Structures are given as C-alpha cells and as structure tokens.
Amino acid sequence: MASVVISKLESKLDKEVSSLLKKSRLKGFSFDEEKEITYADFLSDKMLIIAAIRTGIPYSFFDLVQDYTPFSESDWANFLDISTKSLQRYKASESHHFKPIHSEKIIEMAEVTKMGLDVFGNIEKLKLWLNTPSYALGNLKPIDLLKDSYGKELVMSELVRINHGILV
Question: Do 158 and 142 form a contact (C-beta atoms < 8 A)?
C-alpha cells in the first residue's frame, strides 16, 4: 500500500520537476527541454539542482517533497530554521518561492529520503532508522544531524555504508 502512495507521489514529483526546470531558465544552465526529466534524474544531476536552488523552489514542489519524506512539519521548520506558522503562511500563498538557502535544504532532505528509501525499501523503516540513536553517528539520532550540511553528509555516508553491508 505504502509503495503505491510513494509511486503516485513520484509521478507527481516528475511532473513538478519538469515544470520547475522549464521555468528556471538561468544563464549558463542548459538542458534538453524536449526530454522529460524525472525526479530521480533531477536528484542525480547537480547542475539541475543548482539551477533549481538559484531559481528558488516553489511551494508546490516543496509540498510534494514534504509528502514524500518522513519528516513532520515541525522537522521541516527546524531544518529550514523558520516557524511552522511561516510554513503555513507560505502554503496559503500560491506563488511563494523559497529563498536559495531554504531551497538547498529542501533538496538535501529529498536526497536523504531518496537514499534512505533505496537502502531500507520503505518509509516506515527509514523513519525508524532516522529516529533511533546510531553508534556510528556518535549515538545521535540521524534526524538530529540533518539540520546542517556536515551532519547531512555524515548521515548520507552512513546510509552508503549500510547499503554496502558495512555495519559498525
């Protein structure tokens, strides 16, 4: 059941990514506008990510990413260093685009989720892992490390090690 929901969300994310990239025509960034770019393609192409960050992620894309990830609204407010009230206000505004600093964090959390789903296979197992202290991460919960980019890199590295069967 959960995989069906994830699959539908990924389909919506694919459409939203295509729309986002068509709107983000930045100097120096080129991509084939005829080719449909999927969400997975987007997350694996650093140049596309840079273009999206510099343009600013629209709330509509964030809303889909938020549904795709295992993070609560309060987690998102913490990651983005803004209040939940601000997030709710952004939702009410149809044309809100996040600042580049927030856009980057949104994409980072999308990357963590994608990698976590590849490793654990479902959102519930990923959520459990994120909220369980890890010996390899100094007995901290992985979710507590995601606020900054250095912590995110530690979490991603640990996910790679788990994926390759290297357990501490």
Answer: yes
